[in-house]
Amino acid sequence: MFTLEALLDRPGETHSKVSLFADDVPPYFKTEPVRSQLHLERNRLVLTCMAEGSWPLEFKWIHNNTELTRFSLEYRYLIPSLDRSHAGFYRCIVRNRVGALLQRRTEVQVAFMGSFEEGERNQSVSQGEGAVVPAPRIRSFPQPQVTWYKDGHKIPPTSRIAITLDNTLVILSTVAPDAGRYYVQAVNDKNGENKTSQPITLSVETDPIAPTIIISPRNTSVVTGTSEVTMECVANARPLIKLSISWRKNGVLVSSGLSDYNRRLTILSPVVSDAGYYECEAVLRSSSVPSVSAGAYLHVLEPPQFIKEPDKHITAEMEKVVDIPCQARGVPQPDIVWYKDALPIDPVKTPRYRVLVGGSLQVNGLLPDDTGMFQCFARNMAGEVQTNTYLAVTSIAPNITAGPSDSTVIDGMSVILHCETSGAPRPAITWQKGERVLASGSVQLPRFTLLESGSLLISPSHISDAGTYTCMASNSRGIDEASADLIVWARTRITTPPQDLSVIKGTKAVMTCGVTHDPSVIIRHFWEKDGSVINVQSVPRMQLSADGTLHISQTWSGDIGTYTCRVTSVGGNDSRSAHLRVRQLPHAPENPTAVLSKSEKRAIDLAWAKSFDGNSPLIRYILEVSENNAPWAILQANIEPESTAVTVNGLIPARSYQFRLCAVNDVGKGQFSKETERVSLPEEPPSASPQNVITSGRTNQSIMIQWQPPQESHQNGILRGYIVRYRLTGLPVDYQIKNISSPDVTTLLLEDLIIWTNYEIEVAAYNGAGLGVFSHKVTEWTLQGVPTIAPGNVKAEAVNSTAIRFTWNAPNPQFINGINQGYKVSFLFHLLPARPQPTSRPLVPQKHVQPRQVLLSWEPGSDGLSPVRYYTVQLRELPDKNWTVHSASVNHEAASYIVLKPFTSYQFRIKATNDIGDSEYSEESEAITTLQDGKDSTKYRIFFPPSEEKINGILLGFRIHYRELLYDRLRNYIHTVNSAFTWADLTELSKHKRYEIRMSVYNTVGEGPTSPPQEVFVGEAAPPQNVAIQSATATQLDVTWDPPPVNAQNGDIQGYKIYFWEFQRKNGTERLRTLFMPEAGVKLKNLTGYTNYMISVAAFNAAGDGPRSSPTRGRTQQAAPSAPSFIHFSELTTTSVNVSWGEPTFPNGIIEGYRLIYEPLTPVEGVSKTVTVDVKGSGPLWLKLRDLADGVTYHFRIRAKTFIYGPEVEANITTGPGEGTPGPPGEPFITRYSSALTIHWASGDPGRAPISRYVIEARPSDEGLWDILIKDIPKDATSHTFNMDILKQGVSYDFRVIGVNDYGYGSPSLPSPSISAQKVAPFYEEWWFLVVVALVGLIFILLLVFILIIRGQSKKYAKKTESGENMVSLDEGRFPALELNNRRLSVKNSFCRKNGVYTRSPPRPSPGSLHYSDEDLSTKYNDLIPAESSSLTEKTSEKSDSQGSDSECEVDPNRQKTHSFVNHYISDPTYYNSWRRQQKGISRAQAYNYSESESEHGAPPPLPPLPPLPPQLSSPSPQPQQAQGQPQGQGTLFRPKGSRTPTPSQQSSNPPSQHSTLYRPPSSLAPGSRAPIAGFSSFV
């Protein structure tokens, strides 16, 4: 180090003392890196460039000659995680102001191990030969240790087995046991990984072999200092034991270093003298077989070593010559490469630089720029070495060639003050601000950096950095300096940046952007959204305030994004960003699904996909449910927002459920999702017993049971009925069972029970899943019965003259059948009786006169010593009715109520009857009149038919036993009726009371047994009022009504009975639902969907049922339909099938369509494709599927849809060929004619049954889907001809033939060669013929024009027509198609103007025949025909020339008659269609013709006579004929060009063609044929 002190004299400056540091040190490496280094993958690697020299030192890293970094102060290079791509050669370059150096490279090796690249393989070798099995390739570093295995056992080297250096397995003199499966295991000893290869199967074939060298030595290069090098030679011979291997080096036998049966030659620590040609020789001892040999070269390399190096520092003067020595030796001889400041020296580009023989560098004519670091590299294949020196060119004073300039910088930014110099030696740079040294070769202050160029970098700048900066350049020859001023502006900064903002959709968002800046600068605000500038003027919703605040009104989702406020100014730019989030209601959850839970009973698993959350975290989900199509109700209101699935528990069996969800965030509740498919829970047996089981004894052998169904929530399905079981109470007897198979029956009368016996009774409901829970036991007694035996030992004894004593024994209690309430004693005695005397005159007290009855009283006369048995009452209506017997069985009391008509006058008389006979009638009573009618509900009329069976005597009358049914007491009444009556009125009954009534018959012997009891209720009744029906769901009707009027209820209403049945099916479907509570409504459930029901309601009270209401009609809503009634497959081939199905048995609504799903049961070619086809409408009910694979079983599912889909019907079908079906016919070939094709084939295997017919399939060559073209070809045919009209012209087709027998469609033949469906044009359609015709026509036209001109000249002055226009009368015979009504047309107006161009008007067809043959004519004019929905009008042609040029085909309206062309033809669309041009490519077979008879239209306007048809149009017969070559009944697969639209007529009378019927796929039916009744072809 030295210091130079100098006084610098400059004008205007005082002398000052400056210290300059002129001792800059060039860079040098403290240590060199290792030549190679090995690391593991994913390890961290730090490469260090250990260099020193004058500051600042800058470093740059290079990998495989590619720059990794730029020059920087960082001397380390970090690789955080190594992988195999990081392997290679690394070196660093270090530089300072003095120069630059290249570091010796170091090789970084990365240990890794990949996978074996080969799969399983097979290899064979002849016995005795050597088997060479290369090891499977694997990428690894270092090369792995490889171990060979055979059938799981390790293979060691032996005299027969060698493992080469590249791990090839060599088996010498192979024998049969060597065959087997070989594999290798590779182990990387650096990272410990190991891999096992796929097996290699070796097979050994027995063949002798001569000796050969299997593995020859290889040319090898090795560097001195290596521990060893090995060369190998593997030979084979038979017998192997006599094989001998020897080695020679340059012809000299080698005896040391041999191993492995002399197969390997190892040279330890090889040196240069070991290099040479090494040869191995294989000899078979004791044999005349010649030896074989092979050789290779061994090259021993020596790394470079310097034998002459330059000094570390060389000084030379300007324009001198300097030699920098550098010589090296090595094997091979190293190459010398020179670098200056880490850049290669190219003597061609810089002739002053010359590399001398031996490697030294000569520099001629030294210049100051030659100062720097020179570096010499010696390189060969063994490595490289380097040496360096610093060359200093002296004796030039420093000069600042580009000094600093005044600069302005923003606070915080970087600024460079330039200072470029020249001089020799290179000047040292020092920067000062005032007296303060900021940066030099030995001084470094923070933020101030001396760059390699000499410039000063200030980073970052501060306000305090403003001032004057001086750059001083110095060397041994002097000093130079330059100054500049630096201005530092306060930086423009955003001090109030925008903040992340979240607003609700539709509200206002405000984003601030406050700025501080230097007062001397002007700032500008602008905003960006997601990187795009916002034009506030073009967005009315946005406003920008003067302070930079952005206002956004009516926010929506399009406003979401990152907003950046940018501020620009000369004082700096700044930007800040914030995110605007617009919250809104969340979207509906997506793809909700509901399935039955597999883990829980009565549960459904619900899943959904999360959707857009409205830019606000979800708070919860709300789940709603619809049970059995009921209105939606909230099921769960707080489902966790992270959930995408939930299990809904506690559901009711046999009910269907549908779900929907909505999401809730802090904005509110979003829309509901789509409804899930409706899921039905399976039925379970009822979980509750019937309710309110009530029993009552009805007779002595019957008990009435009544109950209500179980609660609806416990029915668990549709009730099918009830089981009633009963047994004697307290006795160990079995239950007796009654099965009630109707769920609407809730009463049962148990009959044939034991008299006066206690029973215990239980009731249970059942549904389709089984029997439910039985109710609690209810006990009930049967009623008492009549004692079945009489008292025993009856005795009578006279007590006195007027008394007799009777004694008896009581009957056995078990035969009393009840509680013994007493005995009846009957006895007979004999007197001399006589007839009774008449009674007194009957009296009727007025107070006992009522509208329908009176109280008749009398005084009895003498009974004639015989008791009066009964009285007979006669009455007559006044004034003139006859006497009639009212009652012949009035008891012997002297009073009786007589039932009469209201407001009627009567007289009465009475006679008495005893055992002897009748008395005389009494006197007539006074006339009385009954009162007017008023409601009286204390009377009950009983009707009974006369009975003659089992009277056992003369019928005297009937006795009616009745009693009021009370719970606390019973009281009996008896009413006797004469045998002449078949009815009786029970009067004086109590209103609103229940009565039990029995009847008995009596004759002269006594009274017979009573009838079964009947219960009645006294009072008038009315039905329920205002019955209304509301359809609730598909299986439920809500019925409401008003109770009967209060005055007609006749007591307390205890419930209602609802009778309902399907409309017009009352007898078969009527059911009953009983309500045991007086509610005014009921929900009728388990009904059939979309069905009309009739409903009638009746009330009942304790006395019984009231009258029914009039039936009211209602209909259930639509429901899911039942499954289609069947699924059927037909026309099954190898690739297609017709699928048909039946309508659902229960549509339950309007069928909107069907869904067909099919899929293979096993994947086809690795793909399992599910195809879904929706068929709209209620028909058709079939599909043609053509995309099937042969021999594959497909699963088909079909279900119908109303507003939702119903259950599926399923079936499987396996495509052909089936077992027993015919084999493939021979490969077809095709013979082509002008317009027809003939397909030929040979018969194939008929299968298990004779072939019944053939079908032909076709497909366009580029489509790939086969379809039946022709079917029902006779079984004996081997060829078939058909017209090409059924094919699409110009399309190539393939054809194949299929045989059919009773087992089905067989295997198809191979496809025929493709053939184009292009007709061969006849000669008259060839171009040359058309040209000839055109030329001939042109000649005739020219002749005609010439004749007309000559004729016109001769008549130049002829008289003109009255209208002033040249008129031509068109001869009807010549132009029949242009004029039908003998009109005169203007010559000019026979042409029409269309789009400014005159064209001919369309020809008009003759009504006698609408057939066109002139293709050119129809093609040319059909463009003028309007669409079918348009109208066609005729306009006048009586116009001027100018008018005619602007109008279109006008005709005089005065000449238009009623039966004009337009009226006649447009009114009938069939005529119109025959005239209308057809679309190209569409074939319309002429299935109909039309002929008009005079008798059909009466007397239409006369038509002009028709000329004879041209030859091509004439018909030999008036009968319409079909086109030749088109057999009747043939359909068309495609519609060829140029055919006509059919018009209705009778079918052709031609006999059917001998050809087979063409099969018409529904998608390609001819227009004239009818579509199938149901179905279409689906090509999926």
UniProtKB/TrEMBL annotation:
Ranges annotated as biased composition (Pro residues): 1499-1519
Name listed for the protein in its UniProt record: Sidekick cell adhesion molecule 2b
Domain Ig-like: 27-109, 142-201, 211-293, 304-394, 398-487, 492-583
Domain Fibronectin type-III, residue spans: 588-684, 689-785, 838-933, 1023-1119, 1123-1218, 1224-1319
Region (Disordered): 1396-1415, 1427-1456, 1486-1580
Native source species: Oryzias sinensis
One example of a Gene Ontology biological process annotation: brain development
Membrane topology of the entry: Single-pass type I membrane protein
Keyword Iron-sulfur set for record: no
Membrane-crossing segments per the record: 1327-1350
Cross-referenced Pfam families: fn3, I-set, Ig_3
SMART domains assigned: FN3, IG, IGc2
UniProt cross-references to PROSITE patterns, sorted A to Z: FN3, IG_LIKE
Stated family: Belongs to the sidekick family.
Native organism taxonomy: Eukaryota, Metazoa, Chordata, Craniata, Vertebrata
One of the record's GO molecular function terms: cell-cell adhesion mediator activity
